[in-house]
Amino acid sequence: MSIFHYYNFPHCEAFVFDEFLITQIREGVNIKPEHNHELRQVIDKHFLNKNVVYISNRYFSYSVDPMTYLETSKIHNLIAIAIVTDSDVSKSNALLESMFYKKKFAIFSTLSEAMSWVHGEILENNKK
Question: Tens of pLDDT along 15-58?
């Protein structure tokens, strides 16, 4: 597993790997439904004919409009989302956000835990 693309967007950094992509949203940003456009472009470019899992590494403090997840759910090959945070407030926010996402959604304390879970999700989904 190695990174094969890096994007430096105004609101976040994105790291694209073989089976997943990781974003790290910048401090103070408010993620809105229109941010899905960039996510969809990256997924379409790098994961056109394969499943992908999105990992949000919540290192910085930012907000997410929960309605964003309704649009994110429509990305056909995005099979799951993992949130990585060690903050109790961020975990609570992620639990609320999970109610708006129509696919698998999990919260982890470390990036390593999330990456292990991703591999299992990809394997399970490819068996279907």
Answer: 999 889 999 999 999 999 999 899 999 999 999 889 999 999 99
Euclidean distance between CA atoms 12 and 34, whole angstroms:
14
User: What CA–CA distance (Å, rounded) separates 101 from 16?
Assistant: 21
> Residue 21: exposed, middle, or buried by beta-carbon count in 10 A (0-12, 13-18, 19+)?
buried
Order of all β-strands in the sheet with 52-57: 5-8, 12-16, 20-25, 52-57, 78-84, 104-108
Backbone angles phi, psi at 63, to 5 degrees: -120, 155
Residue type, 74: K
Q: Token pair for residue 20?
A: 């997943």
Residue-wise pLDDT for 72-90, tens only, equals 999 999 999 999 999 999 9
CA distances from 113 to 16, 55, 119, 120 (A): 18, 11, 10, 11
How far apart are alpha carbons 81 and 86 in whole angstroms? 17
